[in-house]
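testing teh design pipeline on a random one, pls ignore if ur not involved
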C-alpha cells in the first residue's frame, strides 16, 4: 500500500493546484490584453486563456472531487492520526479559505471583466482597469496563501 503513496501525493498536489489555477492566473492573462478583445470569452483570447476559462467553468467539480478522493486516499495510506496534526489543520483551513476567495470573490470578478462590452467610454475603460488591478491583488493574496500551505505541508512545523 505504501507504493501507491507517491502517486497519490503527486496526483493530490497537481489536482489541488489545478483547482486554483484558473482563478489565480486569469487576471494576469488579462493584463497583457486591452479591453477591446475580451468582450466574449473566446473572441480573441489566446489558447492558454481559453483553456483556463474552460477549466474554470467546466473542470472545477471534477478536479475538486479528485482532490477529495486523493486526500482520502492519503489519509487511508498514512493513517487517521495524521488528521490530528496542527500543521495539517492550519493548511486545510487556509486551503478552504482560499477556495472561498476563489469561488466567491475571484470568479465573479473575472466574469465582470469578461462581461464589459467592447465599445466602451473612457470611464468604462478606467473601471475595467481598476477591476483588473483588484483581481490581480486578490491573485497575489491567493499565491501567498498557496505558498504558506506549501510551507506547512513541506516542513510540518509543530504549531
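output:
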Amino acid at each position: 500500500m505504501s507504493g501507491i503513496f507517491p502517486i497519490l501525493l503527486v496526483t493530490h498536489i497537481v489536482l489541488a493546484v489545478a483547482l486554483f489555477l484558473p482563478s489565480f492566473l486569469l487576471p494576469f492573462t488579462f493584463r497583457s490584453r486591452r479591453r477591446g478583445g475580451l468582450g466574449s470569452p473566446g473572441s480573441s483570447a489566446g489558447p492558454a486563456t481559453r483553456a483556463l476559462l474552460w477549466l474554470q467553468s467546466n473542470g472545477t467539480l471534477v478536479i475538486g472531487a479528485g482532490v477529495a478522493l486523493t486526500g482520502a486516499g492519503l489519509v487511508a495510506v498514512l493513517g487517521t492520526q495524521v488528521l490530528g496534526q496542527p500543521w495539517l489543520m492550519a493548511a486545510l483551513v487556509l486551503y478552504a479559505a482560499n477556495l472561498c476567495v476563489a469561488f466567491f470573490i475571484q470568479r465573479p470578478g473575472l466574469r465582470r471583466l469578461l462581461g464589459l462590452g467592447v465599445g466602451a467610454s473612457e470611464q468604462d475603460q478606467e473601471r475595467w482597469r481598476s477591476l483588473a488591478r483588484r483581481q490581480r491583488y486578490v491573485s497575489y493574496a491567493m499565491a501567498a496563501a498557496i505558498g504558506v500551505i506549501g510551507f506547512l505541508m513541506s516542513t510540518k512545523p509543530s504549531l
